[in-house]
Amino acid sequence: MTLFYLIRHGDPDWAMNEHHKLKGHGRDLVPLTAGGIRRVLETAQDNRLKEAELIISSPYTRALQTAAILSKELQLDIRIEFDLREWQPDLTFQYDSIKRLQELGDDYDAHNGVYPPGESRAWESKESLKNRMEGVIGKYLDYSKVIIAGHGMAFRTLVGEIGDIPHASVIEFIR
Questions:
Q1: What Rg, from alpha-carbon coordinates, does the chain have?
Q2: pLDDT tens column, 130-165
Q3: Which residues lie closer than 8 Å to 53 by C-beta, 6 or more apart?
Q4: In the chain, what are the domain boundaries?
Q5: Please, are residues 86 and 148 in contact by the beta-carbon 8 Å criterion?
Q6: Which of 136, 138, 135, 131 is nearest to 113 (CA)?
Q7: Quick check: 55 and 71 in contact, CB under 8 A?
Q8: Using CA atoms, how far apart are residues 43 and 142, in angstroms rounded to an integer?
Q9: Which of left, alpha, beta for 24 (phi over 0: left; psi -120 to 50: alpha)?
Q10: By three-state DSSP, how is residue 6 classified?
């Protein structure tokens, strides 16, 4: 049995996306805000995390920066796992605004992450996201306690619909 500490990344600087008109995966390059860094530093003081053996992280900047802060504070190695990336709102990688992201997210929510029969959507299905997450977790079942630095939608899909997950918060997940 492995205990995973799911830690959502700190607050990202989304304004940078709009300023630079970033598209697709370019939107995932933004760093944390100063407040986001502070929150992650506070999270690193959580006594539960001191027993972890390893940090695994999404490849997105906001998660990597979160993992780096945790690594420095807890003296743990980081492994980057591509499949820990966040839910893909637009598999064509063309979305370029918060408005479009909201539209895609609303459509996902309206269909509960499941494509209507005989249809496809621009967004990644809930099943695909959950399978990616479970695949990564399966690689680390030989450890006792592992930190995962990642994303809210990915974590919600993994553990079940638990509502919004605050930035830099810790959720315990057992496999």
A1: 16
A2: 999 999 999 999 999 999 999 999 999 999 867 789
A3: 76, 143, 144, 145, 146
A4: 3-174
A5: no
A6: 131
A7: yes
A8: 25
A9: left
A10: strand
Q: Which residue has the tokens 């100063």?
A: 34
Euclidean distance between CA atoms 163 and 175, whole angstroms: 21
**SS3 state of residue 53:** coil
| DSSP code, position 5 | E
User: Per-block average pLDDT, block size 10, for the chain (175 residues)?
Assistant: 98 79 70 96 98 97 97 98 93 83 91 94 95 98 98 92 89 96
CA 78, CA 72: separation in Å to the nearest integer?
Answer: 10
Please give the structure tokens belonging to residue 5.
Answer: 């500490």
Q: Which CATH superfamily is domain 3-174 in?
A: Phosphoglycerate mutase-like (3.40.50.1240)
Question: How far is residue 6's CA from residue 3's CA, in Å, rounded to a whole number?
Answer: 9
> Which single residue is written with the structure tokens 């980057």?
80
Length of the chain counted residue by residue: 175
